TrEMBL record:
Keywords: ATP-binding, NAD, Nucleotide-binding, Nucleotidyltransferase, Pyridine nucleotide biosynthesis, Transferase. Residues 11-171 form the Cytidyltransferase-like domain. SUPFAM superfamilies: Nucleotidylyl transferase. Pathway: Cofactor biosynthesis; NAD(+) biosynthesis. One of its GO terms (molecular function) is adenylyltransferase activity. GO terms for biological process: NAD+ biosynthetic process. This is Unannotated protein.
Amino acid sequence: MPVSLPTKVGLFGGTFDPPHLGHLRAAQAAASQVGLEEVLFVVANDPWQKSDQRVVTPAAVRRDMVEQLLEGQSGFTVDDREIRRGGPSYTADTLEEIHRERPDADLFLIVGQDSAATMAATWQRPDVIFDLATVVVVTRPGGALPKSVLPSDSIYVEMNPVDVSSSQIRNLASRGEPFAHLTTDAVVQFISTRGVYVGAQ
Ligand code: ATP
């Protein structure tokens, strides 16, 4: 009788304000190197570590932009459970929910080097996160990461660093400067037609 292996599911959480090529390349590198069958882009409702520092674009708009980013990317989907749940978005709650829904899936949490460096110290209930998912770290320019801060079974993905951040795009877009080289055509089109960052700080 054939033995069916658990489905390998990646979760990639973020504010995605806006989503960009760094996000896409990070998910692609993680998916191919870890052998993920699916990657869920989990859009934070209230990114509590950021929302006290600046005005964050409404969650529904960020979700729509991620949909644009993922157009034509097979195996990558938007997951808006944190928006439907409301309130501050905690990855531990999200992992518990997904684990309850899909107890047979093997869960992998994809994080950039910068987030990986602080998650054990600053995220809510890191013990739950480390228990329910394997951490997959992707390289990010400027990110330094002592390996001792993460569980020993964490996976470090090789990727050509993509020097892009959402803040960089917000700054360029708000000044009316070009940013098309930093994200996909569909996202550029969405931002430009809706004027998402017009007047943004
Ligand atoms: P901001 O500039 O507003 O702080 P950001 O570009 O860091 O935003 P987020 O949506 O906060 O984007 O990031 C979500 C996840 O994607 C995090 O784990 C982050 O480390 C990772 N990430 C973001 N940009 C890159 C990149 N260029 N390369 C690799 N990982 C990235």
